[in-house]
Amino acid sequence: MAMKIGVIGTPNKDTLILPDKRKTASWGGVIYNILPLAHYLRKDGAVLPICAVGEEVLADFLGLLRKYNNILFEGIKSCAQKHNRVTLNCVSQTEKEETAELNLPPLTFEQIQNHLQGLDFLIINFTSGRDLEKETLRKVRLAYRGRILLDVHSLTLSDPDAKGRRRLRMLRDWQEWLEGMDFVQLTWEEANSLIGQNETSVAGLVEVADWLLQHGTSGVIVTRGARGAFYFHADEQGILKEEIPSFPIQTLVDTTGCGDVFSAAFVYHLLIWGGGGLESLTFANRAAALKATFSGIGPWVA
């Protein structure tokens, strides 16, 4: 196994309420990184999940991962707390309302540090928003000198209210969270939480990208659903904005997990095939689009 990719995040237990009101239960969250990576890396490497799992669902989770022989288990921590559960009400094919029961504690640096050695890449995906604390993230960045992709994801969501509802919030200290990350990924909507505007603008994104690119980031990825993605990077002439075109699909079923599949496919392609980031982003955009044609994780575990 030549390559080893670490993935920090939370494998949530999801209940999806699709636009036609059908309900489906599935593992979600960081599982959409882990399984596609294991699928892509079958002959080329291994995936190391670094995550907490409630002991009442641990056996089910490990049984799911055992469908692949290149997923490593040593980074999985069993917790006495009940596992995180998330309900995603898909009010349309692209808009979701989230309610959550978040019980798992953040990972500590001590639980992470011994798993960083030997990694070729590290994905940090804030699938719960509480996956690790800011100071722990800083210590990870100092300890691990390889490349990191940070998916902003639920860092932009509020804590659950009395009814468990989570809403987009402004991430006022985003510079402290994102400084020094090699790649930063966020959605067009999540960008609102960084630029502090009601509607995301390209000018606002350029301002964010400019700060990140001056503070250790190589590329800023902004996913835009059916409109493709933007990629901000820099050369000696300044900031470059590349537009990754959309990948057409015939039937849109469920966009849950598309961003996580995107980051998994991007990192895989970048490591295995090398070259410029644009080729890897095109591959990732296609993988994310194909995920939108089905709900859940079935194709990876069939």
Report on the structure:
The protein is α/β, with parallel strands linked by helices. It is built from 10 helices and 14 strands. Strand 6 (85-90) and strand 7 (96-101) form a beta hairpin. Helix 1 (31-40) packs parallel to helix 8 (258-273) and helix 8 (258-273) packs antiparallel against helix 9. It is globular. The protein starts with a strand and ends with a helix. The model has no long low-confidence stretch (mean pLDDT 93).
What labels describe this entry?
5-stranded mixed sheet; alpha/beta; 14 strands; globular; 9-stranded mixed sheet
What is the gist of this entry?
The chain has 302 residues and is α/β, with parallel strands linked by helices.
